[in-house]
C-alpha cells in the first residue's frame, strides 16, 4: 500500500519570512502591525511555533491573504511531518 504524503512540506514561518523580506519588514514591524509579540513571530519564523487561528487572522489582515491560506500551510506541514505509530490490523510494520 502506498502511503499518502501531502504535497507541501513548507513551514508557514518560511513563507512569512519571504513575505517580510519582500516588503522590507522586520519582526518588530510585524509585531507592531499585528499587536502580537516579537517572540511569537520569531518562534514562527524559526519554525519552533505553529500558526494558530489568531496568527492566521493577523497575517491575513496585514499581508492581504486569507486566514485559510496560513492555516492550510500549517495543516499541510503538520501532515507531512506526521508519522503514524500504528499499523492496520494484520499488517506488520513496514509492510506494503
Write down the Rg: 17 Å
CATH class: Mainly Alpha
Count, helices: 5
Total individual domains: 1
Q: What is the helix fraction of residues, given as a range?
A: 55-70%
Mean pLDDT across residues: 86
Question: In what range is the share of β-strand residues?
Answer: under 5%
Q: How many strands?
A: 0
CATH level-two architecture: Orthogonal Bundle
Structural class: mainly alpha
What best-fitting shape do the alpha-carbon axes yield?
elongated
Structure, described:
The structure is a single chain. This protein is mostly helical. The protein has one domain: Orthogonal Bundle (434 Repressor (Amino-terminal Domain)), CATH 1.10.260. The protein has five helices and no strands. It is elongated and about 55 Å long. The model has no long low-confidence stretch (mean pLDDT 86).
Fold topology:
Blueprint: H1 12-23, H2 27-34, H3 38-45, H4 53-63, H5 67-81
Helix pairs in contact: 1-3, 4-5
Brief summary of the model shown:
The chain is an all-alpha fold.
How would you describe this structure in keywords?
96 residues; mainly alpha; elongated; 434 Repressor (Amino-terminal Domain)
